[in-house]
Design a protein that fits this description.
Length: 67
């Protein structure tokens, strides 16, 4: 009997939770960076692509390390 009552109580607690679903998904910050890169790349704007990186960025490849 205690088990049945505890299941009913637990079930009612779960069903009473109000979880509001988000009205719209917000874009992640990386989405705007990708969009800026894509626009600059498609316009062949090397300065625009270069401005997306910090001045002291390291390019790391399996066989290449450039500073």
């Amino acid at each position: 009997m205690k088990t049945l009552v505890s299941f009913i109580l637990f079930g009612s607690l779960l069903s009473s939770c109000n979880q509001s679903s988000p009205a719209a998904f917000s874009k992640a910050p990386i989405d705007s960076l990708i969009l800026n890169w894509e626009k600059s790349w498609n316009k062949h704007d090397s300065v625009g692509v270069r401005n997306l990186f910090i001045s002291d960025a390291l390019l790391i490849d399996d066989n290449l390390l450039a500073m």
